[in-house]
Amino acid sequence: MDRPPVIRKTAQDLRLSPHWADFAGERGTFTWDGARRALQGLPGGGLNIGFEAVDRHAAGALREHVALRFVSRSGPALDVSYGDLARQTNRFANVLRSLGVGKGDHLFVLAGRMPELYVAVLGALKNGTVVTPLFSAFGPEPIATRLNLGGGQVLVTTDELYRRKVKPMRAQMPTLRHVLLVAEDGGVTQEPDTLDLGQLMAAASDVFSTVETRPDDPALLHFTSGTTGTPKGAVHVHGAAITHHATGRFALDLHGEDRYWCTADPGWVTGTSYGIIAPLLHGVTSLIDREEFDAERWYTLLEQEHISVWYTAPTAIRMLMKAGPELARQHHYPNLRFVASVGEPLNPEAVWWGKDVLGLPIHDNWWQTETGGIMIANTPAFDIKPGSMGRPLPGIEACIVEHLEGEGEPPRVRIIDLPNVEGELALKSGWPSMFRGYLNNEARYNKCFCDGLYLTGDLARVDADGYYWFIGRADDVIKSAGHLIGPFEVESVLLECPAVAEAGVIGKPDAMLGEVVKAFVSLKDGYKPSESLRMDISAHARKRLGAAVAPKEIAFLPVLPRTRSGKIMRRLLKARELGLPEGDTSTLEGGA
Ligand code: ATP
Ligand code: MG
To answer: Which of 417, 386, 413 has its CA nearest to residue 402?
Structure first.
């Protein structure tokens, strides 16, 4: 279907007056010092994420307001108010203190999206203890590797996960001093060498004074998704709360009355920064669904939980699209006013799908584990160019650079001033949530910076209106017969075919052309692979992209390999195609 290149916003598109209505004005007057004043701070100039997210509200008008609402198939919803959350996180902080765990020590959480995870993360932050939430679906190896890399002293998990995933490896975790277990059956855990968290919490005081942390003190250690290689541990500081608050305001447009749902798991940076911290900083009610993806369930939740702001990911949107529009149309979403997506490029088809079936376009935004918060975004007040990730937020200066001398160290780059020239996306250093190091890899960290710029490793271009367009990871770009081909462009065109649910495109070595484009596609429900379908898809791609860029080969797969954070793993498609070692697959969804 032919779609216009721009989705124009009008006053009718806005149910609430957006926080960011004057694009240039807000960017012109914004300062990070000013943004910090939106937070309370600790006496003496300190800043603590847990205090800002919970205690600040619990001491004020939001004491009885629901902070977190947990829903699951197995029982009634559980509402936790800001006041409850303050008391529970105080208890948890006291538990840590009683164990001698303090500022700068390191705690890991391995759990599904259960209340204890949220209490542990926020309570640990209040105690000055550095936190890493892990995906509960990780196997023993990835858990041990990450815990050892971070030198974790404390692990919070469930008795069931402990028995299956931690116990067999415990002897190989020399730094681990305390294992705090949540009994899945609600009883008391009896595992040797562990402590029962429920008992400890019951005995602890619910009064705690937040440990004095400074904006530059470490708060969180997040591992990257492992899309391009072995996951890296990125260190984040308490000052990140300033970015989380500012971006919750500008990119997610959070207002006090919102009912907000971030579908990401806290094992991925999005699920912590925007699934825990940013909504609490804004005092909104956050929905947490403890179940896995299910299209029917998700539509029901959007409707029945009166969600107003929804933050999800392209992979989820593609799965909803795969389930067909009829399901979506069986529900109504009168409360929904803003939908955003992050994690991968959002294909234009997906942006339009939102408009067609939810009545709202999907707003793509861009950031990385390393940036700690949203940097480039489409937001409620401004026109969307489907396929573009939007424009830099207030406080963020982005540019496109070219490398001057190959892979030098330190790298040397030059800013490209012309619009629409492809290069590496770079950001002027200095926003508060910028990562402060890759764990145990200073050389790699230093390589990310040059002349005051942070180099993102992503290729993009910026158009004359200042909208950024993602081309691909530097590693994924295909070089064919002298053309540089970004996989995203090809994948987006493949997704225009009614049968195609997902597409992943790689470069396959070719003696003549350098590389040829090979596409892997999975099909929507109701379609079956066939030679004629392959030819239809191929013809569509050739018509839209030209013969030089269209895939030379198209293969059908039932599903594409993706990370637990939902990103297509092109490096795995390539390794499998070429019969090469698969490398680190610790974050592969469905893997051990
Ligand atoms: P690794 O660094 O381990 O390979 P990763 O880069 O996927 O994994 P994350 O930090 O979770 O780990 O993801 C950030 C990356 O995701 C970005 O650098 C970018 O490549 C991609 N990304 C995120 N949002 C978008 C978006 N809106 N459009 C395009 N790409 C995006
Ligand atoms: Mg990365």
So the answer is: 413
Distance of CA 127 from the midpoint of ligand 2 (Å):
29
Q: Are the C-beta atoms of 104 and 130 separated by less than 8 Å?
A: yes
Kindly state whether residue 531 falls inside one of the protein's structural domains: yes
Rounded Cα–Cα distance for residues 111 and 267 (Å): 9
CATH number for the domain harbouring residue 142: 3.40.50.980
- The one-letter code for the residue type at 435 is F
Query: Ligand nearest 228 Cα, by number?
Result: 1
Which residue segment(s) compose the domain that 315 sits in? 1-48+236-395
| 573 is a domain residue | yes
Q: Are residues 360 and 298 in the same domain?
A: yes
User: Do 390 and 411 have their domain in common?
Assistant: no
The neighbouring-strand residues paired with 520 are 504, 555
Which DSSP string corresponds to 149-192? HHT--EEEEEHHHIIIIIGGGGGG-TT--EEEEE-TTSS----T
Residues 267 and 348 in one domain: yes
CATH of the domain at 421: 2.30.38.10
Mutate to test the pocket of ligand 1, among 146, 227, 438 (most ligand atoms within 8 A of CB): 227
User: For residue 135, is it within any domain?
Assistant: yes
| 374 and 403 co-located in one domain | no
Ligand closest to CA 571? 1
In a structure prediction context, what are the per-residue pLDDT tens digits for the chain, which is 592 residues long?
678 999 999 888 888 999 999 999 999 999 999 999 999 999 888 999 999 999 999 999 999 999 999 999 999 999 999 999 999 999 999 999 999 999 999 999 999 999 999 999 999 999 999 999 999 999 999 999 999 999 999 999 999 999 999 999 999 999 999 999 999 988 999 999 999 999 999 999 999 999 999 999 999 999 999 998 889 999 999 999 999 999 999 999 999 999 999 999 999 999 999 999 999 999 999 999 999 999 999 999 999 999 999 999 999 999 999 999 999 999 999 999 999 999 999 999 999 999 999 999 999 999 999 999 999 999 999 999 999 999 999 999 999 999 987 666 677 899 999 999 999 999 999 999 999 999 999 999 999 999 999 999 999 999 999 999 999 998 889 998 888 899 999 999 999 999 999 999 999 999 989 999 999 999 999 999 999 999 999 999 999 999 989 999 999 999 999 999 999 999 999 999 999 999 999 999 986 5
Residue 81 φ/ψ region, left for φ over 0, alpha for ψ in the -120 to 50 degree band, beta for the rest? beta
The residue whose two tokens read 């939908």 is 339
Instruction: Give, using CA atoms, the residue closest to atom 11 of ligand 1.
Output: 225
* Residues recorded for the chain: 592
Q: Which residues line ligand 1 (CB under 6 A)?
A: 224-229, 231-232, 342-346, 364-366, 368-369, 389, 456, 458, 470, 473, 565, 567
Q: Which ligand is nearest to the CA of 372?
A: 1
Domain count, the chain: 4
363 and 379 part of one domain: yes
Q: Report yes or no on whether pTM surpasses 0.90.
A: yes
Q: What is the whole-number distance in angstroms between the Cα of residue 501 and the centre of ligand 1?
A: 20
CA-nearest of 262, 266, 257 to 287 is 262
Query: Do 315 and 250 belong to one domain?
Result: yes
The CATH number given to whatever domain includes residue 18 is 3.40.50.12780
In a domain, 69, yes or no: no
Query: 192 and 82 in one domain?
Result: yes
How far, in Å, CA of 419 to CA of 411, rounded? 23
To test the pocket of ligand 1, the residue of 146, 224, 562 to mutate (highest count of ligand atoms within 8 Å of its CB) is 224
Q: How far is the CA of 168 from the centre of ligand 2 (A)?
A: 30
